Amino acid sequence: MVTNFLQSDNWERFQQGIGKKTFRLNNQLLIKNQLPFSKSWFYCPWGKGELGKLDELVQLARKENAIFFHLDPFNKFSILILEESTDFRFSIAKTIQPQKTLILDIDQPRDKLLAEMKEKTRYNIRLAEKKNLIIKQQTASDDFWRLMTQTSQRDCFSAHSRNYYQRMVEIMPEIELWTVFVRDKAVASAIFLFDRDNKIGYYLHGASDYSERQLMAPYLLQWQGISIAQKMGLKKWDFWGIDEDRYPGVTRFKLGFGGQIIERPPAQRLIFQPLWYRVYSLTHN
């Protein structure tokens, strides 16, 4: 069984659906990212480190003109497996997926989940429940994209393209897009992923209308995602990244629900073309 959704067949199909070329090396997913001058780099998201013979990776890199290979380890054992399986020298890098996240145990009664939240979070959920808000599942990302455009500008982060979110909803059956409305106006929207195989749900992307913040719609929406996951029999809920320095507001919002902070190991990179890698490093901080 695949240990996480980033190594799943559906995630591979999604990557292909947005124009990426993919490979499997010892059943580990590699995603090719195109660069100028016909260069590229390989990405292995949440890999287990079981890459088999790295000579095959080197040959593939030569064929695809890849400058480097980037592994976001799934856990510390991924690093141990990698170190034991090769004499190649890897360098440490920043992870692409969130290195620090918050995971909530949802295999418990709803009353207990509410009781273990911070008082302000619990209050905001109950307040939102009194606001006559309507929550709908959607298949089109129009409302989500409008809210994401606002949110990314407000919080100073780079969002994916509109096509990225839409193709994710279209291609991956484990993805669900939910939006909160007040008087037919979308005020908060989120993309959840429900991994039934590994019994865990993810809050992947979220956006909201700041002008309607008094409605506390994001709290109600998050509670909706957790409730769906519980009904599916999932055991954990991953808030998908926290960072007190870069995103203090979002991090406070997530921490209010409780849970355990998890930190994964740093990324590992294998460089194939040192000169071009230095050029890449100068333009990609």
Automatic annotation (TrEMBL):
Organism of this sequence: Candidatus Berkelbacteria bacterium Licking1014_2
Q: Which GO terms describe its biological process?
A: cell wall organization; peptidoglycan biosynthetic process; regulation of cell shape
Q: Which Pfam families does this one have?
A: FemAB
Among SUPFAM superfamilies, the record links this protein to:
Acyl-CoA N-acyltransferases (Nat)
A GO term for molecular function: aminoacyltransferase activity
**What name does the UniProt record give this protein?**
Methicillin resistance protein
Family from the record: Belongs to the FemABX family.
What are the record keywords, sorted? Answer: Acyltransferase, Cell shape, Cell wall biogenesis/degradation, Peptidoglycan synthesis, Transferase
